[in-house]
Amino acid sequence: MIPKETEGERFEDALARVCRCIGGGTAADNGDSDSDLEVVADFFGVNLRCPMSGSRMKMAGRFKPCVHMGCFDLEVFVELNQRSRKWQCPICLKNYTLDDIIIDPYFNRITSKMRNCGEDITEIEVKPDGSWRTKAKSFSCIEMEEFSFQIKEHT
């Protein structure tokens, strides 16, 4: 029931969606835009807790037609909903089919990087260009490449 990551959205498309949601345009923008939109904050806070379980997501999932950047733990979602066959996005509450469920490549890459972090680290800060860092009270996750992950290095 859980799709393969390659069956959903390309990483570049997921990154562009996140950048649009934050207000930074696309990752390829050069900053010479005529847009009147101003990004006030350097970082946008994102909670990585699953809206259903309350735990940090292990496998970030969402419905492909959704335009928001919110995700849920895909394994928890499928487990809770497979009996009822109700496939409703827990973020926007729209109804979809099982075929619309995908692994979100952007947030799944983040949750994979955070597997060695303590479960208490549940928030990240995302820049308008899509790069991110953990929002941690302590430095319990040294494996996070100096607490910063530049998306552009991996695209």
UniProtKB/TrEMBL annotation:
Compartments it resides in: Nucleus
Keyword match Nucleotide-binding: no
Pathway given in the UniProt record: Protein modification; protein sumoylation
Record flagged with keyword Ion transport: no
Transmembrane segments annotated in the record for this chain: none
Keywords (A to Z) from UniProt: Ligase, Metal-binding, Nucleus, Transferase, Ubl conjugation pathway, Zinc, Zinc-finger
InterPro entries tied to this protein: SIZ1/2_SP-RING (IPR031141), Znf_MIZ (IPR004181), Znf_RING/FYVE/PHD (IPR013083)
Residues covered by the SP-RING-type domain: 33-116
Domain of life: Eukaryota
GO CC list: chromatin; nucleus
A single GO BP: protein sumoylation
PROSITE patterns, per database record: ZF_SP_RING (PS51044)
MF (Gene Ontology): ligase activity; SUMO ligase activity; zinc ion binding
UniProt similarity note: Belongs to the PIAS family.
Protein name (Swiss-Prot/TrEMBL): SAP AND MIZ1 DOMAIN- CONTAINING LIGASE1
Species this chain originates from: Hibiscus trionum
